[in-house]
Design a protein that fits this description.
Layout: H1 2-23, H2 25-29, E1 36-44, H3 50-59, H4 66-75, E2 85-91, H5 94-103, E3 109-112, H6 119-129, H7 135-144, H8 161-164, E4 172-175, H9 179-201, H10 208-221, H11 228-241, H12 248-257, H13 294-301, E5 310-313, E6 319-322, H14 325-340
Antiparallel strand pairs: 1-2, 3-4, 5-6
Helix pairs in contact: 3-4, 4-5, 7-9, 9-13, 10-11, 10-13, 11-13
Length: 342
């Protein structure tokens, strides 16, 4: 009877370990500690294969045999589901490191390109979220590399990092938290921009820089998508007539470049000497004043055809459009009366 009980206990133990090892391996694997020593940062960049990542792990001193690590990644079916990002790994055998990678959650940076934000403010925001030194300088460098932009666009880019921000589609992007991640950002955002507008810009590439400037002004002048083509039409009418654009948004930007933030402008403010002051200088300013949305790009590419030359902001956030200066003065007066009656 005792032998039978002992045999039953042994069989139960064997069944338990078989169950753990073959049917539910995650139960015991979760309790294992893979590798040893301090964590080492390894970046898995977009387009890298498992073999590339294994070689990068070897270069960083995490494994001695990159080929063996690549084979273990394939055996664990990790090679086909690797996610770009920052991996923090400990040195170990290829088997251990492959399991570390399988269980790791790579770190990514969420970088938002906001429509209507000026390039300098974007760099200031970038400085606060990037965990490496001089992200502003590295972003400028990434923007000035032609190869980071779609090939058809490259011959028409200005050598000005600020203007190149116009060719990044506003969106939230997930990139590796490294200087190389900023290269990824420019490539991905410019590709998204190209996909959105390429059909409409292919025959206007030689005018693209000027269209970008107009799109940025339209972006800052109206928050309403349905008005933007009409506002673009107003500016086009003024350019054709040889009139100054007289965009308050460009003057506000000029003051911001001078280190002063303004939301309203006085007559004295409008006399501020700057190439971005479109009250003093005819034509378009020398560069963009904000990142244009795709809606503003669409408006600048296809302005509404009309006979309006003026517009004034209304209390509801929309604009009143006028054909003559007399009509414009009347609209301003009516708007001031509406404001005073509230």
């Amino acid at each position: 009877m005792k032998r039978w009980i002992v045999a039953l206990i042994w069989l139960s133990c064997l069944a338990y370990f078989a169950d753990m090892a073959f049917f539910f391996p995650h139960r015991w694997q979760e309790s294992l500690v893979y590798g040893s020593g301090p964590e080492i940062d390894v970046f898995l960049r977009p387009q890298m294969t498992a073999a590339d990542f294994a070689r990068e792990a070897k270069r960083c001193g995490i494994v001695d045999d990159a080929g063996s690590l690549a084979r273990w990644l394939a055996r664990l079916d990790v090679d086909r589901r690797l996610t770009p990002g920052l991996y923090r790994l400990r040195r170990g055998t290829p088997w251990e490191v492959a399991h570390e990678i399988a269980e790791a959650e790579p770190e990514l940076l969420n970088i938002v390109i906001v429509p209507g934000e000026d390039p300098e403010r974007f760099l200031q925001r970038l400085k606060k979220i990037c965990p490496f030194s001089d992200p502003e300088g590295k972003m400028r460098e990434a923007l000035l590399r032609n190869e980071n932009f779609p090939p058809p666009l490259q011959p028409f880019l200005r050598q000005d990092w600020r203007n190149r921000m116009a060719f990044l589609a506003p969106e939230t992007y997930k990139v590796t938290p490294s200087p190389e991640g900023l290269e990824e950002l420019v490539k991905e955002a410019s590709s998204a921009w190209w996909e959105s507008v390429s059909e409409r810009v292919r025959d206007k590439l030689d005018q693209l820089s000027d269209i970008a400037v107009l799109a940025s002004i339209v972006e800052r002048e109206s928050a309403r998508s349905e008005e933007r083509r009409r506002i673009a039409g107003v500016f086009m009418n003024r350019l054709k007539a040889g009139m100054p654009l007289q965009s308050c948004a460009t003057v506000i930007f000029a003051w911001r470049l001078n280190g002063e933030s303004k939301t309203t402008l006085t007559h004295d403010d409008l006399r501020f000497s700057s190439p971005y002051n479109t009250y003093l200088h005819q034509g378009l300013p020398p560069g963009i004043i904000a990142v244009p949305s795709i809606d503003s790009w669409s408006a600048a590419l296809e302005p509404e055809e009309h006979s309006y030359y003026y517009f004034v902001l209304k209390s509801d956030g929309g604009h009143h459009f006028s054909r003559t200066y007399q009509e414009h003065l009347k609209a301003q007066k009516e708007e001031r009366r509406t404001q005073s009656n509230k």
